Prior knowledge:
Layout: H1 15-26, E1 32-37, H2 43-51, E2 57-63, H3 70-82, H4 89-96, E3 97-102, E4 107-110, H5 119-127, E5 131-135, E6 140-142, H6 145-155, E7 159-165, H7 172-185, E8 191-198, H8 204-213, E9 216-221, H9 228-234, H10 245-255, H11 259-271, E10 275-276, E11 284-285, H12 287-294, H13 308-320, E12 324-325, H14 326-339, H15 348-360, E13 364-367, E14 372-375, H16 378-390, H17 394-407, H18 414-425, H19 430-443, H20 447-454, H21 466-478, H22 482-491, H23 500-516, H24 520-531, H25 539-552, H26 559-572, H27 578-584, H28 594-607, H29 611-627, H30 631-648, H31 653-666, H32 670-683, H33 687-703, H34 707-724, H35 729-746, H36 749-759, H37 769-775
Parallel strand pairs: 1-8, 1-9, 2-7, 7-8
Antiparallel strand pairs: 3-4, 3-5, 5-6, 10-11, 12-14, 13-14
Helix pairs in contact: 3-5, 13-14, 13-16, 13-17, 14-17, 17-18, 18-19, 19-20, 20-21, 21-22, 21-23, 22-23, 23-24, 24-25, 25-26, 27-28, 28-29, 29-30, 30-31, 31-32, 31-33, 32-33, 33-34, 33-35, 34-35, 35-36
Amino acid sequence: MYTTDLFNFRFVDRDEARNKFRAFFANSDGNVLWVKGKRGLGKTTFINFMLEEYTQYNLCYFDIPKNSNSIEIISEFIKQLERQCDLNFIDETQKWYKEFYCNTYKIIQKITAVLFPKISNLIETVLDTGYYVITKSDERKESIDIIYHFISLILSQKKLCICIDNLSRCNIDTLQFFFRIIKNFLLEENFRACIVTTTEDLSTDTKDEIFHFLPFTDIEILRLKKYEYFFQILEPIFHLDNFKEEDFEYIFIKCEGSPKKLSTIISKLLEKQGISFRKNQKAFIDKSVLFSILQSESIKFKDTDFSSAQKWILFSFLCIGERVPINYLRDLAIYIASKFFLYITYDINIFNMEFLNLIESRILQYDDKNGQVDTCHDEDFLELEDIFHKSPVFGMFSSRTVEFFVMHKEYINHEKIICKNAMHANNLDWEKINFRYGKKLFRQKQYQDAQQIFSRLSDSFHKLNPIQILVIGINSYETGNFKLAISQFLYLQPEILKYRRMKFYYNYYLAKCYNNIGEVCKSIHILEAIMQEIPEESQEYLTILNLLHMYYLEIPGRKDDAKKIFENIFKNYRESFPEIWANTMRGCQNFKDGNEALEILDKAEELLSDDLEKAFLVNTRGFVLVKLNQLQKAQDCFQTASRKIKSLKRHEYTYAANNLAICQMLNNNYSIARDILLEALFWNRTVYGQLVIQMHLMICSLYLNYTDDMIYYYDVLKRYMIDNHPIDYTINRKIYINLAIVDHIRGNHIMEAAHLRNAEKYVKNTSTEWIYHILHGDFEYNPFNSAQYQTPKFEPWFLIYAHD
């Protein structure tokens, strides 16, 4: 018997989960299999065991590494896909596509082996939402299409099952990237997908996104229910004649029904020589050693479980991070040994011997296919990390790791490793090192990954200069963390900002943050103040005017101020600032009638060179067409706009997607509308957008008889109105009238009357007035001649450049 054989546990229990798994593979119905549960209960073991029954599928199993950024995660995922076929991702990309084009900066990148020698270089461009890809036949596609195409090539040859473990480690952007890939193939007969999440790591946001965005069949892996299962696990491996029933019950209680904790006990027994072997026989357990382990407070690794040589290797491993290339680990460990007097005798021979011992004891595992070292379980990594952080040599190991990777910049991910260890070692310039790396990610538009780095600096703003803090605040804005961005901007004192452009960016983004959390009056105050310091006729001045004319529309009694700004820009700035003029014209429907508005939008589109700005303009055109009762043309506009915005700036996708969903609702396609709205809600980052989408989801749920969902959205909206007392007339009339509609249909006439009273002062001369009269029983009221106003089932709430 080999030492590693001690961990070949027999698979027991899980009958209900097994049956659900088999039913899923027999007929997935376009769903994803979601396996979830607490750490240490055997989720990964369950997946691997069950997939042995489905050898017709090539298993692309991908465990997301801890603390990895988007480029690293998706690059490694592509490499795992390559192992399922005889295809090379870079070669296939060069074969089918010729270039990337960035509309924002007018940059063309040819797809060649010189420009993209590595998968990570290619993925970096794919993740930049400013780029799209051009095929050899001159078709324009979203950059993600190159991954769709690669998976399609694999599926044309064989069946494929993609299993993504530890999905909860992803940031939101990477999570959505995987969602898009999976959803694109769900209806393929040769395709199956499985995601695995750990309860302790699963944020509320991630859980909500899975619930709302992926069609899934879920399996929850729970603790083993009976102590007899521990006997069934151990009996094929160990002699158990000297164990009593109460012994197994005690082991079971101490392990809390967790197979992982049972595995930890065996590792500890090996380290303490509590297991003996005889040739061709089962292993023997020393009960006295076993019960000394069980009588500890908890079953987890401690400092005393490892020799100093083993800690030398483990601490070197932890300095680099989870899933370490063996050559990195070996080279770093030897380097550290050469620098520490205590470890002067630790050479390559001791490394090899102790490394094998750690593998045999199932502390570490080594994958000889890719040459990488990892812990055998997430829980092991956390326990070892806790030991390392409490060790007196923690800072010294981290400091030497920084030295090593500064000298070996050819190693992949050296920047990330240096940043982490510089912080742990408390190097004098660790803040500067981390900011520099975060800024690099920021410039690459990897905002979520940059946020992870910048978060380390939250207690070190006093050591940063104003420009650095400004960059961090803008990055928080780009990730949709508006309240965090506000707190970071407010750390700065405006008077210390020396340059006009710095002051402009500070106030511009601070105002937009306040607007996005619903505090538009603060936004206006900031913009009006900064206008006093900016030269008139400058580009910055006109940009502020443009924002102000939008925000004024949300404030009761300030529409005339908005109109004055609009007319000023409309008459005077078409020649001098054509781009800003064109962007301002996206709000022309607020001041111009339908056909005149369409003419203005056509002229504005001719002046725009940015595809994203054109997409927003097309979205506005769709709204004008709705008011002209041309619903099909409007729907086509919203479809075009949503497709473009999604590919160029996903966080702004909400606007056009919401409007497209309304068209489906007007045609009674509530199920289609609901799917569109849920995706829009996923990307939305503004309070206003959230209210709009949740209101439409409430209506869809009402007519689809999804009672629980309808009640949820109803309560959220009602509570918002009670707690926030919004001053925006549009918010008040749209929400109150739709709440009244829901109560009218449900027969709750007392609440209906209350909502109508609340709506009364906001509806006159608006799109809401006709339905207000109908709910009051005034059926002779003549509604506007528009499809928007011909159904009493709901009152639409369109999202455009400036609200309707």
